[in-house]
Amino acid sequence: MPATARDPLGTSRVPVAPGLSMFDPMFIGIDEFGEHVMLDVVYRNLLIAGEPGGGKSGLINLAASTAALADNTRMVLLDAKFVELGPYRDIADAFIGNDIEAAISVLKRLLTVATNRYQWILSQRRRKVSRDDNLSVILTIIDELAMFSTVLGTKAQQEEFEGLLRGLVSLGRACGMPVVAATQRTSWDIIPASLRDLFGYRCAFRCTTHGSSDVILGQGWADLGYSATDIDPDNRGAAWLLAEGGIPRRIKAAYLTDEQIYNIADYAAWMRRPSGITVPAPSTTSQWEMAA
Ligand SMILES: Nc1ncnc2c1ncn2[C@@H]1O[C@H](COP(=O)(O)OP(=O)(O)OP(=O)(O)O)[C@@H](O)[C@H]1O
Asked: Which ipTM did the prediction report?
């Protein structure tokens, strides 16, 4: 299977709700040939990094909007700035601002859910969940990773946060609990290789040095000519996207204005109302959902 599927429907349409699933490829923009760029986030995780103003929040919001509109999808949002993911706070299972204790607590809960899900997957004699299982996708989105790993709380809390996050990123991908994380700090202390390599998708927005571009994409890509330093500072939303096992690809992320973001979040809240169209059907796996 290709790492990034190009318009799998064979048409030029962008998948939209209702009926959208996080198991469907997620549209994030176009490549340099004008082709749609679609990601299979559920099984891969997504790391987004680059210097301030490059367009990271745009991509984060695309992921959040898709998840908000997707059927049977729950969101856990960590946003120390409040305003990036705030529009979705009413429909998120958890919305954490600048509170590292709450962040640690929610990550612990997520790891418990992941462990329960693996017990269930084992009982089904399989290795990962599929859309037919009717288990909800739980998408965790973190905007400004560095706030939780270097700024808020004590050193011990920051290390605990990092350890738990590493656990979730490595466990989540096979049990329907992917992570999207973003940072403007492109250094090894924020994105150590051992964490970065757990992300199946890495997206580098403009960087100032080859070294920081390599921190995101992986050691050696800049020497091969794939460096986010070559992105024009005025070309906001442009990035290099690396999908596991592939080579980096130039993309231009789609962009949602603040008004569009709030409109989508409002629509998603309406769609998810108890009598709405996205009430999950009873499933054989519902007892496992209770663990969440
Ligand atoms: N895909 C895009 N297409 C066109 N313009 C964009 C795109 N992405 C971002 N921009 C423009 O660039 C500005 C900064 O983008 P954004 O806030 O996403 O950057 P950022 O990398 O998240 O910055 P910060 O790290 O400071 O949060 C936006 O306000 C918008 O005007």
From this structure: 0.94
- The answer to whether 245 is annotated as binding is no
**Which atom of ligand 1 sits closest to the CA of residue 205?**
21
Does 19 belong to an annotated binding site? no
Domain count, the chain: 1
What is the span of the domain harbouring residue 229?
A: 26-289
Is the residue at 211 inside a domain?
A: yes
Question: What does DSSP say about strands 249-253 and 238-243: parallel, antiparallel, or unpaired?
Answer: antiparallel
Q: What is the DSSP string of 5-17?
A: -S-TTSSSPPP-S
Judge whether 4 lies within some domain.
no
Taking residue 163's Cβ as centre, other Cβ atoms within 10 Å add up to 12
Q: Is residue 133 a part of any domain in this protein? A: yes
Q: What is the CATH number of the domain that holds 33?
A: 3.40.50.300
Query: Band of the pLDDT at 272, cuts 50, 70, 90?
Result: confident
236 lines ligand 1 (CB under 6 A): yes
Report the alpha-carbon distance of residue 165 to residue 153 in Å, rounded: 16
Per-residue pLDDT tens digits for 123-151: 999 999 998 998 999 999 999 999 999 99
6 belongs to a structural domain: no
* Integer Cα distance of 168 and 109 in angstroms: 10
| Of 239, 264, 253, 258, nearest in space to 28 by CA | 253
